Amino acid sequence: MKIKLVIHLLLLISLSSCKFSNEQYESKVLDDIFLDLLIEMSVQGVLLPPPPPLPLDFLDTNYDTTGYAHKVAKYEEDILLEKERLVKEFQDYGNRPKEMILAIADSMSTMASLNNSMLEKVFPTEVLSELVESIEQGIKKKRKLQIKEITSTGPYQLKYFKDLPRNINYDDKKLDLKYVGSIGISRIYFDKVREHGILGCSYTMGALSGHGALICIKKVKNRWIIIKSIVTWVS
Asked: Bridge partners of 199?
């Protein structure tokens, strides 16, 4: 009887430590990508320039598609550099007094399914299959998002949305600092070797002003980065 009790206790401790470790890892990943996430979601109106438009005669069989492809490639390089500049600007903010309030949902929601067709060009086939499996058969519960686990927030002071006045809108004067909207983040789903991941994110400035996206991430040199964001809804 005592042996069975000991075995049960050891099993419970093992499961508890595994859960704790998984949540710790998820928090570490979120901390890695948080500033980049704010830029991807255009928090506070940080807007990146759009890609070069197709010319009016792009359906002409003589149109130089290779030339346009080079323009797009150059645009993507420039966007990457601009994102890196903005992230560094946020990182360099350091411990200076915060200038704005960004609300954040107090729990990380779950994802029920994934539209494979949106991600076929982002992840290798095997990785995408593992991510779909992770969403459909993996994490099914929300979890508390701990603001203190996000170590770098740039010029923003994070507050739980539930703790702010009701019906608050962008640039509202009800608070001491400028209010710039609220952000919601889902649980993070990984492939089997934890080198790729995906999460959902939303950013709203008011009742009818916001958007949501799928955020695709990858581990590079032991640090997680955003490799693609795909807009899923706009209000």
From this structure: 215
- Report how far residue 182's alpha carbon sits from residue 191's, in angstroms, rounded to the nearest whole number: 29
Please tell me the number of Cα atoms within 13 Å of 146 on its side-chain side: 9
Amino acid at 163: D
Secondary structure of 5-49 in the HEC alphabet? HHHHHHHHHHHHHHHHHHHHHHHHHHHHHHHHHHHHCCHHHCCCC
129 is written with which tokens?
Answer: 């299959």
The first and second tokens of residue 55, run together, are 């010319």
> 46-97, pLDDT tens digit by residue?
555 666 676 655 555 555 666 777 877 888 788 778 777 877 888 788 778 8
DSSP state of 186: B
The H-assigned helical ranges of the chain are 2-40, 65-91, 125-137
In the DSSP assignment, the letter for residue 174 is: S
State pLDDT tens for residues 139-197. Answer: 889 999 999 999 988 889 999 999 988 878 776 777 788 888 899 999 999 999 999 99
CA distance 71 to 143: 43
